[in-house]
Structures are given as C-alpha cells and as structure tokens.
C-alpha cells in the first residue's frame, strides 16, 4: 500500500487563504469570522453593498461563471496566493408546494445553491491541483437528506451537493484535496427569530437538542474541516443539527 503522507504537524500554525461565498451576512459571515479569529487570511464574496466590517470582500454572483472567475482572481490578488480553502455557502430558498412551483423558482434555487457551488469549486481546484492541497466545504442543509414539504427545489439542490462533494473526492482525493458537506439544521438567525412562537415551538419539539444552533456552532465545524485535524475526512456529510436529521 502507498505510504501515508500526512500533513505536516505544524500546519495548524500556517494561515490558510480562505474564500467564503455569501460571507457578508448570516452563517457565511460567522464562518468568515471564525477563520479570521484563528489568524487565517479570509476574503468573503458579497453581491451588493459593502463587505462586512473588518473583512475583505469581492463582488460575486454565483449564478454567473464570469463573475465567479473574476471574484476568484480578485480574491487571489488580495490573498497574495491561490485560494486554499473554499467555503461554498451562498444559498437561497424559494419555497412552494410542488404542484404550484414554477420552473423559475426551481431553476433559480438549483442554479444558486448547486450550480453556484459547482462553479466555485471548478474555479477553486485550478490552484488546489497545482498546490496538491485544498479544502472544499459545501454548506448544505439537513433537509437535503431528510426532505422538506414545500422545499422540493431547495432540498434537491442541497442533496445535489453531496454528489458534488463525493465526486470531487473521487476525482481529486489523490491530489491532497478534500471535499465535504456540512448540513446544518435550524440555525438561529434573523429569519428564525421572526418565526411565530408557536412555529418555533413546533420546530423545537422535533430537535433532540431542544434548541436551534448558533451560526458560530456551524462555523466551528466548517473551520475544523479546513484544519489539519480533518486531513483524512473527505466525502463526508457532517450534520450540525442537534440530532434533527439522525439516521438519514
Ligand atoms: P442568508 O440569507 O442570511 O445569506 C445568504 C448569503 O448567500 C448572502 O450572503 C447572499 O448574498 C448570498 N447569496 C445568495 N444568492 C447569491 C448569489 N446568486 N450569488 C452570490 N451570493 C448569493 O442565509 P443563511 O446565512 O441563513 O444561510 C447560509 C447557507 O446556509 C445557505 O446555503 C443556506 O441554505 C444554508 N442553511 C441555512 C440554515 C438556516 O437555518 N439559516 C439551515 C441550513 C442551511 P446577499 O447578501 O447579496 O443576498
């Protein structure tokens, strides 16, 4: 068998060049801040407005390959080297019942959540293959494998990320690149705060942990997957859902 070639023991000390899509708010912002706190070099993508305070940003529309390409080029200039860690986090929902879902709502969600991650991964691996090292982390959702009434488009897009990560693992696992999926459950954000108390109670009753996740709890798992301790984890789906999706 080929001799294992583990990462150098001190690689935790080396700052990584990290790109987080949709890192201007929500979970993406928490992820970007977690990496920055650990001393890594972070660039976030944002579609409009300004980058968040204290972080460098580049504009990116993940449904547009040219925009993705330009954002990576700009990010790599800011970082001074190719992206070593890609966190594909940008995502949208357009909920509706199957019978009434428009082509446009289905396609927009798949184009952003699944094809957007594909476009970013395709661009990211150029530098990673050359470096013979890289980490790709795709932000999915518990509903990708559990399913969710009213979210056929969203759940299909999030399930697709599993096939994407596993195929990247098979194609590029021999070149020091890992690709993993993080599947959050309900995360405490402005969105969940706005839900009625009744609805919050209904959701909470289904979660063994009895509470929603904080964005930071998701961020720390993403950061772990990019670190030296996760060098041998690839093609995995890591739930961060308080037990909501167990067994799926
Ligand atoms: P938010 O809606 O707060 O943020 C979404 C981010 O994605 C924003 O930065 C947004 O940019 C960006 N984005 C959306 N569409 C595009 C696009 N076409 N091009 C570029 N950027 C885009 O979402 P959350 O932080 O809640 O979610 C982040 C990820 O986590 C998503 O993939 C979501 O599916 C997933 N998730 C969330 C859960 C939750 O409970 N919140 C649970 C499970 C998974 P802009 O600011 O310009 O709109």
TrEMBL record:
<comment type="similarity">
    <text>Belongs to the short-chain dehydrogenases/reductases (SDR) family.</text>
</comment>
<protein>
    <submittedName>
        <fullName>3-oxoacyl-ACP reductase FabG</fullName>
        <ecNumber>1.1.1.100</ecNumber>
    </submittedName>
</protein>
<dbReference type="InterPro" id="IPR057326">
    <property type="entry name" value="KR_dom"/>
</dbReference>
<dbReference type="InterPro" id="IPR002347">
    <property type="entry name" value="SDR_fam"/>
</dbReference>
<feature type="domain" description="Ketoreductase">
    <location>
        <begin position="16"/>
        <end position="190"/>
    </location>
</feature>
<dbReference type="InterPro" id="IPR050259">
    <property type="entry name" value="SDR"/>
</dbReference>
<keyword id="KW-0560">Oxidoreductase</keyword>
<dbReference type="InterPro" id="IPR036291">
    <property type="entry name" value="NAD(P)-bd_dom_sf"/>
</dbReference>
<dbReference type="GO" id="GO:0004316">
    <property type="term" value="F:3-oxoacyl-[acyl-carrier-protein] reductase (NADPH) activity"/>
</dbReference>
<dbReference type="Pfam" id="PF13561">
    <property type="entry name" value="adh_short_C2"/>
</dbReference>
């Amino acid at each position: 068998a080929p001799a294992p070639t583990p990462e150098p023991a001190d690689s935790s000390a080396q700052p990584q060049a990290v790109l987080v899509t949709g890192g201007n708010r929500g979970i993406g912002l928490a992820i970007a801040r977690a990496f920055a706190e650990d001393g890594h070099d972070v660039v976030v993508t944002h579609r409009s407005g300004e980058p968040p305070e204290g972080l460098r940003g580049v504009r990116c529309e993940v449904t547009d390959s040219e925009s993705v390409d330009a954002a990576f080029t700009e990010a790599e200039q800011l970082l001074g080297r190719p992206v070593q860690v890609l966190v594909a986090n940008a995502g949208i929902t357009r909920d509706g019942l199957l019978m009434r879902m428009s082509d446009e709502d289905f396609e927009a969600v798949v184009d952003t959540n699944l094809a957007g991650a594909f476009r970013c991964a395709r661009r990211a691996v150029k530098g990673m293959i050359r470096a013979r090292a890289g980490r790709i982390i795709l932000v999915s959702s518990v509903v990708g494998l559990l399913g969710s009434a009213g979210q056929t488009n969203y759940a299909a897009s999030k399930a697709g990320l599993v096939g994407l990560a596993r195929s990247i693992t098979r194609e590029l696992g021999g070149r020091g690149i890992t690709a993993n999926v993080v599947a959050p459950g309900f995360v405490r954000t402005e969105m969940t705060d706005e839900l009625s108390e009744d609805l919050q109670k209904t959701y909470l009753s289904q979660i063994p942990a009895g509470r929603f996740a904080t964005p930071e709890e998701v961020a720390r798992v993403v950061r772990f997957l990019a670190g030296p301790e996760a060098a041998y984890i690839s093609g995995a789906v890591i739930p961060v859902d308080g037990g909501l999706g167990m067994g799926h």
